[in-house]
Amino acid sequence: MTDGAPGRRPATAHEVAKLAGVSQSAVSRVFTPGASVAPATRERVVAAASQLGYRPNLVARSLITRRSNLIGVVVPGNGNPFYQRALEALSVAFAKLGYGVLLFTTDPLANSDPILDDVLRYRVDALVLISTSLSSRFAEECVQVGLPVVMFNRKTDSNAASSVTGENRLGAELIAEFLLAAKHRRYAYVAGLEQSSTSRDREEGFMECLARHNVKHVERQVGHYSASGAEKAVRALLGSKQPPDAIFCANDHMALAAISVARAEFGLQLGSDVSIVGFDNIDMGSWPLFSLTTYSQPVGSMVERTVDIVARQLAGDAALSVQEVTCGQLIVRDSARKPKSGLSTQDGNCIWTLPQTASRAG
Amino acid sequence: MTDGAPGRRPATAHEVAKLAGVSQSAVSRVFTPGASVAPATRERVVAAASQLGYRPNLVARSLITRRSNLIGVVVPGNGNPFYQRALEALSVAFAKLGYGVLLFTTDPLANSDPILDDVLRYRVDALVLISTSLSSRFAEECVQVGLPVVMFNRKTDSNAASSVTGENRLGAELIAEFLLAAKHRRYAYVAGLEQSSTSRDREEGFMECLARHNVKHVERQVGHYSASGAEKAVRALLGSKQPPDAIFCANDHMALAAISVARAEFGLQLGSDVSIVGFDNIDMGSWPLFSLTTYSQPVGSMVERTVDIVARQLAGDAALSVQEVTCGQLIVRDSARKPKSGLSTQDGNCIWTLPQTASRAG
DNA sequence: CTGAAAGCGCTAACAG
DNA sequence: CTGTTAGCGCTTTCAG
To answer: CA B302, CA B165: separation in Å to the nearest integer?
Structure first.
């Protein structure tokens, strides 16, 4: 009832039409959402279609509508769980809107220029760049060709493409305030990738806030957003003569690796011997073993915003470029020493906000 | 030099032909790998093409070649790092062969039947099912329609579709032998999903081997392959009156969550108070904090095999259904107590093999 | 509401 | 080696 022969090629609208005794365009209409077809006709077509196992060929449809219904999504293949979640959510959200996700994984090591060609050849309707380290020229080239681009968790200097990011600067500042309030002595930052706008913004927020509070020296290492990079960075930090007692890692993935090293290799107690804070709030951070203090980036809303921007651009009624910032919170757990005040509870999480009394330079 | 107007639609072969003063088919040939074109012609076409920023429209090509150059990949959205790695590797490998990856994420909770429709509509050339819990009818339906299907890390009873799996049974048996050799007393298994062939095979291997050695009672919990599921399972296990001292989790993702709970909530010392073993050998298992003993599934070779099967099927010269098993090893770290003998080193890992003296029933 | 006709951009025989 | 001629399977006017 669903197919003819095993290996036969898929039924066409033409064949359905013949079987149903109608014209091929009638078949097309039945499978076009807004078209008007007589109930009787529709019924016969549907019957014939299901008998033949017919499904409209999206390729053919794309050719004429000039819409592939495909969204290209570019993800760096570095094992960051935050991207996994984002990708999962994007995929589900786009599917719900009838779009397919064409996945491109950038090898963090190799040159990823050919991806542009692939993307353009496949005629994707839009492109989502998940915080990848592609040259910023990339996005601009796409925009120039008229391809809507949304950068997820990243920005470029020129605001040619839209972007959805978390509160990188603000979050990092708050983390600095938080660590200061708990009276740490020696601070360190573990950067992601040097080219990454996200890592830079977080670093600036962190460093500048510390500077405002007269912290002169802040240790710095680069973790390349990878677990092994973070491990090395933290070994260097904690192995030095005057190890820091407060480490801010540019993202959770690195923060977890940092905790692993601090505990297992240096025998340190998190939250007392050393404080480690991350950024993202990935699921694993809440595992009792890590209990990571972190500034959250709400994947759900970020994905929502992203999908929304794409949808609006595709509908044609949107500005060409939007910069969205989604709000997060400082989620307090046990990986960092806690200040006396400023703590409260929200949605089952302990969060920290800057007490009124403290000064907050703009 | 790469484009005409900003928002204009992409150049067509026709336009390139006009500009180059050749026929449209000449343009087509220039962009077809094996075609014969006079050097002079090629040059003019290439020049015109680059001036117009022309790239062949894969959609149009697909329509006529009846090949979308798209491989559908279905992944369960449960945050398992093993799948993330597999997906990354598959994506890179297929890209290298000129295929795009169309991603489908199954919501572990929701019904995923509509995916079949999507997949078929997009006319993907082949389908890779990453150990998803889709009804086994799914794969069979695809095969019946003539769509090549490879199951990654999973099998169905009917061998209609090809599959690439690790040594589930053998690995689990070896784990049992390993735990027995280290003289544990009370054994437990944390299952994945009940429907999962992978979890069942591992359970069978584990249980039967223990039974052969006269272990009567083995505790059992279901972790649903999720971190939170595993946490619950382990709490139940370790919170009981007679907690097990040897726990085999159906995969690493759950094993890590289990370790987290055992250490942080029960204050247990891994490898002495309790032994936890996983399956997969994901990167995080080697983090010093976890130091997970596990049976490895080599993602690299599994992906290679998968891509190879797909490629062969697409080339037409392959058997319709192949069942491949890729070999792994028992990687010994510190999360489980070690036996006296059988340990050796390989590729920087400590591995365990069954000492000759012990009996090994078939 | 329905059918006929004209393509979407490209590949694949064919003659030349 | 090159141009001409048919379509691939579908959407979309346009008459009826």
So the answer is: 7
